[in-house]
Backbone:
């Protein structure tokens, strides 16, 4: 299985190039746009990703009071990399370093999943957990991701799931093992 830090570095590079272009829909890597989700494909190594930015975000201090702060890019994504046997890995980047040892909660409907953090990235613990999260995302209308920064601020990001199923199925079919 691919090292999470290596994955995060690779993905950060891919998104740094691909996502600004996705907003303009001019990148050669964009292979599908499905409502609120976009699908990208890259070679060397072969990888496919279905990704979305939040439709809304809030930032509160540790006491629940609204506050301001600067965040980097925020994405929820599902990643396929057949050469590393990665199929349907759910990944979230919150645009800031998460508090050390903290987890991120991803809620879809009545189901809440814990994602483990490293730096600015969060993932479910196992491929089986990834599969459960993907199944919930396919059934849901939106996903709410809540994390805590190293400064103690709480972020809440809401992602529309319109187009999620089509985007993930596109990524999966393009990067089938």
Residues:
């Amino acid at each position: 299985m691919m090292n999470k830090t290596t994955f995060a570095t690779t993905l950060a590079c891919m998104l740094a190039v691909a996502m600004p272009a996705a907003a303009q829909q001019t990148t050669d890597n964009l292979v599908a746009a499905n409502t609120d989700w976009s699908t990208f494909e890259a070679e060397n190594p072969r990888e496919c990703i279905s990704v979305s930015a939040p439709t809304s975000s809030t930032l509160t201090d540790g006491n629940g009071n609204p506050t301001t702060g600067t965040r980097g890019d925020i994405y929820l994504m599902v990643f396929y990399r057949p050469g590393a046997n990665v199929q349907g890995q759910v990944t979230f980047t919150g645009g800031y370093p998460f508090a050390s040892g903290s987890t991120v909660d991803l809620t879809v409907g009545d189901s809440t999943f814990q994602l483990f953090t490293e730096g600015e990235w969060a993932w479910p613990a196992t491929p089986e957990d990834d599969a459960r999260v993907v199944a919930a995302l396919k059934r849901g209308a939106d996903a709410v991701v809540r994390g805590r920064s190293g400064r103690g601020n709480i972020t809440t990001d809401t992602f529309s799931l319109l187009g999620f199923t089509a985007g993930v199925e596109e990524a999966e079919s393009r990067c089938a093992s």
About this structure: The domain at 4-174 is CATH 2.60.40.1880 (Immunoglobulin-like). The CA atoms of residues 62 and 138 lie 32 Å apart. Confidence is low (pLDDT under 50) at residues 5-10, 16-27. The longest strand covers residues 86-93.
